[in-house]
Structure formats: C-alpha cells, structure tokens
Amino acid sequence: MSEIPYKTYLNEDEMPKQWYNMRADMKNKPAPLLNPGTHQPMSVEELSGVFCTELAKQELNDTDPFIDIPDEILSFYKMYRPSPLVRAYCLEKALGTPAKIYYKFEGNNTSGSHKLNSAIAQAYYAKKQGLKGVTTETGAGQWGTALSMACAYLGLDCKVYMVKVSYEQKPFRREVMRTYGASVTPSPSPTTNIGKKILEEFPGTTGSLGCAISEAVEVATSTEGYRYVLGSVLNQVLLHQSIIGLEAKAAFDKLGVKPDVIIGCAGGGSNLGGLIAPFMGQKLRGEADYRFIAVEPASCPSFTRGKYAYDFCDTGKVCPLAKMYTLGSGFIPSANHAGGLRYHGMSSTLSQLYDDKLMEAVSVEQTSVFEAAQKFARTEGILPAPESSHAIKVAMDEAMKCKETGEAKTILFGLTGTGYFDMVAYQKFNDGEMTDYIPTDEGLAKSFATLPQM
Ligand SMILES: *Cc1c(COP(=O)(O)O)cnc(C)c1O
Q: d(Cα 184, Cα 162) in Å, to the nearest integer?
C-alpha cells in the first residue's frame, strides 16, 4: 500500500473561506471591458445595468487578492463540497507510467459539473440585491441546470435561453431545469427583438451560444427586477471557480505533494482559471513554478489559432467588448463537433496569461478525446463529460511521455463533470461514426473578418 490515499478530502473546517483573485498578482492586467458604442472602459455603474452591482464590482476588481465567501454561499458549498482530489492509481497502472496522476472531481452534484460553484454565488448576490430573478443562456445545458438549482435554493426566478439544437436534442437536461423551477425557451425565439431579427435573417437556424446570450441580455435589461448572469468567460466566474484550485492546493499541502503539471480543458476558461488560480498566484509572485496546459478542441481552437484582439462576446453585439484570444464572434464550430467547448472566445485573464507565456495551450481532435474518455471510464470508473475528457487526453499524453523518459512527474488535471447527458456523442463514437474536423485557414479568415474595427 502506498501512503497516498485514493481520495483526499478536506475537513469542513479546512475548506477555503475566501476566493482568490489572480488578477491582483498579475503584472500585466487583463485589458478592460469596453463599451461597444463608445469603446471606453466600462464602469461599475454601466455594468450594473446588466449584472448585479456586487458582481460588477468583482468583474472590475484587479486589486484585492482575496474576497470573503459569504456565509450563505459557504453553507451551500458544504452540501456538495469539498470535492475529492483523487489519485488515479488505476489509470496509472493501465498506462504503465511512472507519472503520478491526480484529478480534482467536480461532477459530484446533480448539475454534474463545476458550474454550480459560480451559479450559487451569482444567484446569491442577485437575491441580496433584492432582485426578482435572473436570465441566462445555456448551450449543452450544464450551466442552465446549475443556475436553476441555485435559484431554486434561494427562491429566485430563472429564465434560461437554451440553444435550440440542444433544446431539441437534450430533452432530459431541459426537464431537469424545469424540475428546479426554471423556464426554458429555445433560442433564437420570437420572444425577443434580437431573436426575431435572427429568425428573419436565418430562418431554420438551430441557434448558437452567442445568439442565446443576446436574447438573455435583452430580457434582463428590459425587465424590471432582473439581471443577466453568465456561466464562464467573465472574471467574476473565474474568481468563484478558484474554490477548485484552493481546495486542490490545500489537499496537496496536506499530502506534502507538489504537482509539476496542471491541465484543464478550456471552453470560456472558468474551470481552468479556477483550478490553476492559487498555483498561478505562486508563479506570479515567484514562489514556485508549475507548467499549466489549456486543452481545447481542434475544431474550436481559440488559444492555438485565434487572434488576441477585442471582440464581441455575443452575436447581437449588445455585450461589452472583451480583449481575448478569439476566432471572431461569427465563428460557428463544424456541425460534426460533439465535445462541447464551442465558445468563440476565451477568458480575458487567461488570454493575458497565455500571451505572457505563463501558460501553454494545445488542441486535440475529438475522436482522440473520446478514446481517452473511454479508457478513463473503463479504468477509473467515472463516465466523464466530453469537455473534461479533453484534459484527460492530455494528462494521459503527458503520462506517456513520462513512460518514455522514466520521469515520475506529478500531474494534476481538472475532471470538471460527468457525461450522462452526452450519450448521443458517445453513441456516435461507439458506432465508429465520429469524425474529426479541423477548420481551414480560409474558414477562420472569414470569422476573423467579423472582428470589430477598433
Ligand atoms: C461548461 C463546462 C466546461 C467548459 O467551461 P469552462 O468555462 O471553460 O470551464 C467544461 N467542463 C464541463 C463539465 C462543463 O460543464
């Protein structure tokens, strides 16, 4: 028997009581959000028309390294946290690698992903401000599910605009949200001006995240007592997700272990930003060094093939402009892409860290991601979300490199969720019908042409 247990949990009294804000320790701060009309930096007052005031403040906070987690949120966290830090002994054995692999598992709640960590925080501040409800978009459905759970807990109304193709393909996700009391509208819908406009322009469209965001923002800003909430990309979301990294770091400290490589999948960057936060803090302050790797789909390669530029966050161009690694807001991933992580842009904090070469990024093709998912399910027992499986794939690749070199590196990756609602994608893979698609340079040039002229 080895001394390191399969699972390391923190005790309740060891759980973090503050979130960590990486931006406070960054020398080069992420570029500010700009007003889409004037191109001037957004103020708290301006942002407060869209977001709750406290969240608008968190969004713009580049100075406070630690922010207290309110007691009510801590109590909610205790319902499903701490999440375990797992030593992947079975996977290590199956790979025959000298590497020591750990994963932080965020799938142990009904919503099935890490998104609940920010959903409860955003719902809490909305409630505290005396609002009636919140609006949001959801693609695959994890964020909408997490938010409806948080809203049910706090007695807030929750209006979800769900990308039409998912609404139709994932009826079970939709029903989970409705069970928690949310109203779910397929997007684009005739219930908003932007939805009507998009439907006129593209009849028969199956929708996109960017379009659903525009609808949710329109409803929030035109309905008394409502604000808009977003499940990824924003600084505030990375802040709330730092709970993942803080717990992981505390667990490693308890074990007396230091990871060498930290790997996470990257859609909008929230789980990765949260997982690496305290470790990146050490690196920024010159206290310790780590390798950080972002993993993205080859079919939606924001970091590895995108441009670092100001871009629209939504199709309707109503949201603030963000400077980020982006494929252009007109980018739509190929129809055969099944693995999630399909947003055109990336967190502005992670974009700056990547541009400063403080972290790396790789892209992987989806059939190799599902092969990794299958191997993981068969060895470690957990059925991973396709998104999470991007991180699994690269963790396995890194472990295999160790096998060649004989190095016993310690690898940590984020296992962000479970894949029970992704069986259509698994079915395609199991039937041997999954294919890979890599966008051409010409294709990307078309979506880069949608970038705003600054
Ligand atoms: C939403 C989601 C992601 C990607 O979002 P990030 O903001 O990049 O973390 C990854 N994994 C799961 C399970 C998700 O639900």
A: 7
Question: How many folded domains does the chain comprise?
Answer: 1
**Ligand 1 atom having least distance to the Cα of 341:** 4
Q: Residue 288's domain is classified under what CATH number? A: 3.40.50.1100
Establish whether residue 269 lines the binding site of ligand 1, counting it when its CB lies within 6 angstroms of any ligand atom.
yes
pLDDT tens profile 426-435: 999 999 999 9
Domain membership of residue 143 (yes or no) is: no
Pick the residue whose CA is nearest to atom 5 on ligand 1: 267
List alpha helices for 406-454, DSSP H: 423-430, 441-448
Confidence of residue 1 (pLDDT cuts 50, 70, 90): very low
pTM here is: 0.97
Residue 119 lies in a domain: no
Ligand 1 within 6 A of 326 CB?
Answer: no
Confidence of residue 243 (pLDDT cuts 50, 70, 90): very high
Q: Which domain holds residue 286?
A: 9-14+70-112+235-448
User: Is pLDDT at 107 greater than 50 in this prediction?
Assistant: yes
Any atom of ligand 1 within 6 Å of the Cβ of 387:
yes
Residue 148 lies in a domain: no
Structural domain contains residue 44: no
Ligand 1 neighbourhood includes 274 CB (under 6 angstroms): no
